[in-house]
């Protein structure tokens, strides 16, 4: 089968056609997909069924997968599978039910933030034949490129603090309740890290803004108020429509995103009784 790459917007997102993830793909096919991924930052593969084994096999070709330590949201005996879901069994959420409440990339509060993640849709809430629960993705690389030269100069060399606690406190304040995986992590794991405000992408050399509504608390060496203003200005810039791809889910979709050159946000526009079930794998390194 010939691999076909269909860009979804100018800045971000491409659908990859002509691959069947339920089978082992060739090195040549994988290389084309890998190139499409680092070029478009988000890739979408749709229209055929595959299982957790296929999901793990495909995503692990990009590098080593994260193995989860907490038992609650692990997919049936596979520590590589993290469940994202609003489904409850015996009154308990079976997955992370509030992932993506705020614009964020995954794991910036870690010394080594997550690499790419691949989300596989098993159940998608619907209304009148239309899918609900879209995920939006913004290109932090295209957003950087569009900054003025003086802003680029101002950002050069700055460091920012990212905190899991801020995400947790924001969720509680805004009426959502942070899920137990967040709380477990907040209680026992690394919760704060410092990273350059502009990251250079290890695979394509592009400069990416690394600052998010969800996790960034302050910029080092700057008065708090000024730091807050700059964070707000940059996070609003990143999510301008020209940098955003909105994914409308269908069951069996696999969407893989780069956590250096993108941010994402979920849309909570469905009712609690409508089931949404996703399985995610996460790469350890960019
Ligand atoms: C995630 C996430 C958003 C969504 O899995 O990291 O933020 O729409 N998901 O499920
Ligand atoms: Mn996420």
What this model shows, in words?
By secondary structure, the protein is α+β, with helices and mostly antiparallel strands. It has one domain (4-282): 4-Layer Sandwich (Double-stranded beta-helix), CATH 3.60.130. It contains seven helices and 20 strands. The strands form six sheets. The chain has an eight-stranded mixed beta sheet with strand order 1-2-3-18-8-20-5-4. The chain has a three-stranded antiparallel beta sheet with strand order 17-11-19. A three-stranded antiparallel beta sheet has the order 13-12-16. Strand 4 (74-75) and strand 5 form a beta hairpin. The longest helix is centred in the last third of the chain and has 15 residues, at 224-238. The model has no long low-confidence stretch (mean pLDDT 92). Bound molecules: N-oxalylglycine and manganese (II) ion. N-oxalylglycine is lined by residues 84, 99-100, 106, 117, 119, 135, 264, 266, 278, 280.
Write out key terms for the chains shown.
single chain; 286 residues; Double-stranded beta-helix; 3-stranded antiparallel sheet; globular; binds N-oxalylglycine; binds manganese (II) ion
What composes the largest sheet? 8 strands, mixed
Q: Which spans of ≥5 residues are poorly predicted at pLDDT below 50?
A: none
Strand content: 25-35%
Helix and strand sequence: EEHEHEEEEEEEEHHEHHEEEEHEEEE
Tell me the overall shape.
Answer: globular
List the helices and strands and how they pair.
Layout: E1 4-7, E2 14-17, H1 27-40, E3 42-45, H2 52-59, E4 74-75, E5 78-85, E6 88-89, E7 92-93, E8 117-123, E9 126-127, E10 130-131, E11 135-139, H3 140-145, H4 149-155, E12 159-163, H5 164-173, H6 180-188, E13 192-196, E14 198-200, E15 207-209, E16 216-219, H7 224-238, E17 244-247, E18 254-257, E19 262-266, E20 277-282
Parallel strand pairs: 2-3
Antiparallel strand pairs: 1-2, 3-18, 4-5, 5-20, 6-7, 8-18, 8-20, 9-10, 11-17, 11-19, 12-13, 12-16, 14-15
The protein binds N-oxalylglycine (OGA) and manganese (II) ion.
N-oxalylglycine binds next to strand 8, strand 19 and strand 20.
